[in-house]
Amino acid sequence: MSRFGVSQEVLIALGLTTEHVVETACGAMMQAVAARSFFALQTRAQDAGFQLSIASSFRSYERQLAIFNAKWRGERPVLDDNNIRLSREEHSDEAWLHRILRFSALPGTSRHHWGTDVDVFDPSLIPPGESLALTPSEYRNGGRFSDLSLWLDELIANDDCEGFYRPYDKDRGGVSEEPWHLSYAPIASEFRAAQTANSLRDLWLREASSRPHAHAVLVDQLDELMARYVV
């Protein structure tokens, strides 16, 4: 057992270790077998005319906590479904929590903890002076990455995407659709069951520094929130 008092599987599931990931040639942190499969997909994308690149790969609990807390304080943008930035002062704590969870995972529940999931894009399709936003409109309905997204759609539909699929392929009433998010299914399926409300509560009890700033709002409704927002 680690200092967190949990198994290796739970450490990986919650993002509390880096022992399961390696740094790839492109700088991404992934599990080795997932990385090999991604590079095979990347080669196929190049043959199809796309520069498939990784915007985000492994993300630790600590990093996800920093992102979540900054959004809770209103220091990082929190958007509505139309990509409009929201005001912290205009929302109750509970309403603000739901706004954050629509687009950002609660630390300990992100699929990026596992080293199996990546956010992808094509940098060659971003016009000079603009930047990547990772919004659904970029990938759908004629957006800058819509052709890449359609290519991935076809591979996934034919079970021919090197083991990758989209866990956030549609809006199920919790997390927004994320067409940029690919997950390596053969390994990812091992860790979801270890991401439980009880494992998070135990972590927060053992390590006060791991508690999100929204802890007081979270703790009593954690089961319901995870049922809605954890995919």
Describe this structure in words.
The chain is of the alpha+beta class. It has a single domain (8-229), classed as Muramoyl-pentapeptide Carboxypeptidase, domain 2. It is built from ten helices and six strands, in the order αββαβααβααββαααα. The strands form two sheets. The protein has a four-stranded antiparallel sheet. A hairpin with a 5-residue loop joins strand 1 and strand 2. 32% of the residues are buried. The mean pLDDT is 95.
Index terms:
alpha+beta, 231 residues, two-stranded antiparallel sheet, globular, Muramoyl-pentapeptide Carboxypeptidase, domain 2, 8% strand, four-stranded antiparallel β-sheet
Spatial shape: globular
Main sheet? Answer: 4 strands, antiparallel
Integer count of domains: 1
Proportion of helical residues:
25-40%
Order of helices and strands: HEEHEHHEHHEEHHHH
Number of helices: 10
* Residue-averaged pLDDT: 95
**CATH architectural type:** 2-Layer Sandwich
Q: What do we call the CATH topology?
A: Muramoyl-pentapeptide Carboxypeptidase, domain 2
Task: Identify the CATH class.
Answer: Alpha Beta
Strand order within the widest sheet? 3-4-6-5
The end-to-end span amounts to: 27 Å
Q: How much of the polypeptide forms β-strand, as a percent range?
A: 5-15%
> What is the structural class?
alpha+beta
User: pLDDT below 50 for ≥5 consecutive residues: which ranges?
Assistant: none
Radius of gyration: 18 Å
